[in-house]
Design a protein that fits this description.
This protein is of the alpha/beta class. It folds into 2 domains: 137 residues, 7,8-Dihydro-6-hydroxymethylpterin-pyrophosphokinase HPPK (Alpha-Beta Plaits), CATH 3.30.70; 193 residues, P-loop containing nucleotide triphosphate hydrolases (Rossmann fold), CATH 3.40.50.300. It is built from 12 helices and 14 strands. Strands 1, 2, 3, 4 and 5 form a 5-stranded antiparallel beta sheet that branches. Strands 11-12-10-13-14 form a 5-stranded parallel beta sheet. It has a two-stranded antiparallel sheet with strand order 6-7. Strand 8 and strand 9 form a beta hairpin. It is elongated and about 75 Å long.
């Protein structure tokens, strides 16, 4: 088999963690056909699923090798056993864990092995370590640079949990195409659409027409509707939902539309209820220029949106950018709408493939 670079993830949270990783590296270096083994920095991370277990030390090793992945997997399992790992349940503590992350541009999906590793794109500590070794790598299954995948996580680590609602929230400016995208993705995936109830808001049109006294009423209407739509029997564990808003946007709009006294009261109410709505496990942040969004707003012809200005949209966009700059609740896919067409089936299919990687949704 032709030589290619293979990346292995190493983790330890039992015994002498640092020594366990070093011993594993020494054994990997002795594999027949291995050349030029390099090791990333070793970092400490919290356990992902069972938070009651000890902290992990993690690193990534780069091997230039012609060993096929099945043989390499067998060798890794042997090293794990030698260093004291038993065949305990998934997520259990272990002296050493060795995972095949990447193997050149190979894509493998068998009963015993998945390459690229099925959840490596959810681990900042894995992606950062890989980038330390090679900044040019591309994930062969997702067709995305590792650097892009790393930015989606903003330094956080996640795991797929099929036992929570698979809520995908779509964020972005008025007129960017959130509802169109939610409908398109729902048609492709079969997921349930959740639409922002702006038509049912009895105050919204009056607020856009200049009645600022009703701005608080309008914001509270949306807040209560978010809670109704995203809690209880309306949203079920394990099911896929495509929501054309993100509930956290409420503060962006409140700060733009409320006066100081209204905002102070709203904040007291908001803080009491901000944790009630189900949180997304993935956000799709649609980016487009305020001018292009304003053009779409004018074309759809809602009378009460007639006076929306570019300055107002620019202020909202700044609010969204601030929201996601330090976002660590879930991965964020940033969608450049100058290159993406919400009505194009091939574009929707490619995005659906990305969504599948970040959710427990399966066809």
């Amino acid at each position: 088999m032709a030589r290619r670079k293979v990346y292995l993830g190493l983790g330890s949270n039992l015994g002498d963690r640092h020594a366990n990783i070093q011993k594993a590296i020494q054994m990997l270096a002795k594999l027949k056909g291995e050349e030029n083994l390099r090791l990333s920095s070793i970092t400490e991370t919290a356990p992902l699923a069972d938070m009651s277990q000890p902290m992990y030390l993690n690193a990534v090793a780069e091997l230039t090798t012609g060993i096929n992945c099945d043989t390499l997997l067998t060798a890794c399992k042997k090293i794990e056993k030698i260093l004291g790992r038993d065949d305990g349940k998934k997520w259990s503590p272990r002296p050493i864990d060795i995972d095949i992350l990447l193997a050149g541009d190979e894509i493998i999906n068998t009963e015993n092995l998945t390459v690229p590793h099925s959840q490596m794109h959810l681990r900042s500590f894995v992606l950062s370590a890989i980038l330390e070794l090679d900044k040019s790598l591309i994930h062969p299954a997702l067709a995305q640079p590792i650097e892009t995948l790393s930015k989606r996580l903003n330094g956080s680590d996640f795991f797929l949990d099929p036992n929570v609602p698979q809520l995908v929230s779509i964020a972005g400016l008025i007129g960017v195409g959130k509802t169109t995208l939610a409908e398109g993705l729902s048609a492709v995936t079969g997921g349930t659409r959740i639409h922002e109830p702006y038509k049912q808001n009895p105050f919204l049109a009056k607020v856009y027409n200049g009645d600022k006294e009703l701005a608080l009423d309008s914001q509270l209407f949306f807040l209560t509707q978010r809670i109704k739509q995203l809690t209880g029997s309306h949203i079920k564990n394990g099911q896929l939902y495509l929501c054309d808003y993100i509930s956290n946007k409420e503060l962006i709009y409140a700060k733009q539309t409320l006066n100081d006294s209204q905002l102070a009261l709203y904040m007291d109410i908001y803080k009491a209820f901000e944790d009630k709505p189900t949180q997304p496990i993935l956000v799709i942040y649609m980016n487009d220029s305020p001018d292009r969004c304003l053009d779409r707003i004018h074309k759809r012809g809602r009378t009460y949106e007639h006076d929306i200005s570019t300055d107002f949209l620019s202020s909202l966009q700044a609010g969204y950018n601030d929201l996601f700059e330090n976002w660590n609740k879930c991965p964020v896919i940033r969608l450049d709408c100058s290159d993406f067409d919400c009505t194009n089936n091939s574009h929707l299919k490619k995005l659906t493939d990305q969504i599948k990687a970040y959710t427990a949704f399966r066809d």
